[in-house]
Design goal:
The chain is α/β, with parallel strands linked by helices. The chain is about 25% helix and about 25% strand.
Length: about 325
């Protein structure tokens, strides 16, 4: 039987429908799983995404040729049936189900199996072939429950606030930042300030139908005394020399799954590291694969070689796709 999804120089291609999924080169028609830069790029003529991603996509790329569908609603392109299903990765993220002549493939995009309380929770989708990421496909990567990590962040923030010291936390502008804002809730420790790039994504997420507490925008006019008890959220890529100088007395922290590994905090030059990730951990990857019931597993970005080898040694039929998707990044 012909594969429903193949790989070529432009990305993952569905030949029967003549569409691409998260292409890494410009194409005529692109199905988009989520709005991170490595999965949703400039230059496509038409974008198709989940309803909850539409406004975020338009805001981030500044494009108008976007159509969207609700989770679970089937739509057809040249006789091939598609549908979006929650991936739990970030607000609006989706797995993409592809069906043709009784064969079903699911492309997971990026996903996590823990419900973060903001994004629509991951839903396993039955299929014959499952394409999975492997960002954290090693046994060392096992996440603590989100609530425990959030309590650690609150303790750190509170300790800094008692010293009138800002708490600067590095978190990606789309996904991680909103997850933290949502999980920290209406904390009485101090205000939450966000860099302008993060604040733009906050507004887009709110307008997309997600319940997210209001945050203050961090500008060059923000007075230092207003930040003394504040939690300041900036993406790693936006931490300029200006903000390093302005917040030189802040306690700093990185939020990333990589913080699981000893030494990652030191290499990131921060005071604290919180191991919280928007990707599935080792156990989450196994759970997702089992629940799909798939006979064939295709592993993509991350520890794909090691993870596919482990799957083959433990009863699955697994192989690899080399892609241009990145690991835990902006």
């Amino acid at each position: 039987m012909t594969d429903l999804i193949i790989k070529n120089k432009k990305g993952l291609y569905v030949p029967q429908a003549d569409v691409y999924i998260d292409p890494w080169r410009p194409v005529d028609k692109a199905l988009i799983s989520h709005i991170h830069a490595d999965h949703c790029r400039h230059g496509n003529k038409q974008y198709i995404c989940p309803d909850f991603s539409k406004l975020i996509l338009k805001r981030r790329l500044g494009v108008q040729s976007v159509s969207s569908f609700p989770y679970g609603q089937r739509f057809s392109v040249n006789g091939v049936h598609f549908s979006f299903h929650p991936a739990g990765h970030i607000p609006g993220s989706a797995q993409i189900r592809v069906e043709h002549k009784g064969e079903v493939w699911v492309y997971s995009g990026d996903y996590k199996t823990e419900d973060d309380g903001l994004s629509h929770a991951f839903e396993p989708v039955k299929c014959n072939t499952f394409i999975t990421e492997c960002t954290f496909g090693l046994p060392v990567y096992r996440w603590m429950p989100q609530q425990e990590i959030i309590e650690d962040i609150q303790k750190w923030w509170n300790a800094n606030a008692t010293l009138n010291r800002p708490s600067l936390i590095l978190a990606y502008s789309l996904g991680k930042a909103q997850r933290l804002i949502s999980a920290l809730g209406g904390s009485e420790i101090g205000p939450v300030y966000c860099h302008s790039a993060t604040q733009q994504m906050n507004n887009a997420v709110r307008k997309s139908g997600f319940d997210l507490l209001k945050t203050k925008i961090l500008t060059e006019k923000t007075k230092k005394e207003k930040l003394e008890k504040a939690l300041v959220i900036i993406s790693p890529s936006a931490l300029s020399e200006h903000w390093k100088k302005t917040l030189k007395n802040a306690s700093t922290a990185m939020t990333s799954g990589w913080m699981t590994i000893r030494g990652a905090k030191r290499r990131s030059a921060v005071d604290m590291g919180f191991a919280i990730s928007d990707h599935a951990d080792w156990d989450g990857l196994h759970t997702a694969i089992k629940e799909t019931g798939a006979e064939r597993i295709i592993c993509t970005h991350g520890y794909q070689h090691i993870f596919s080898k482990w799957l083959n040694e433990n009863g699955w039929k697994a192989e690899e796709f080399e892609t241009e998707f990145e690991n835990e990044s902006e």
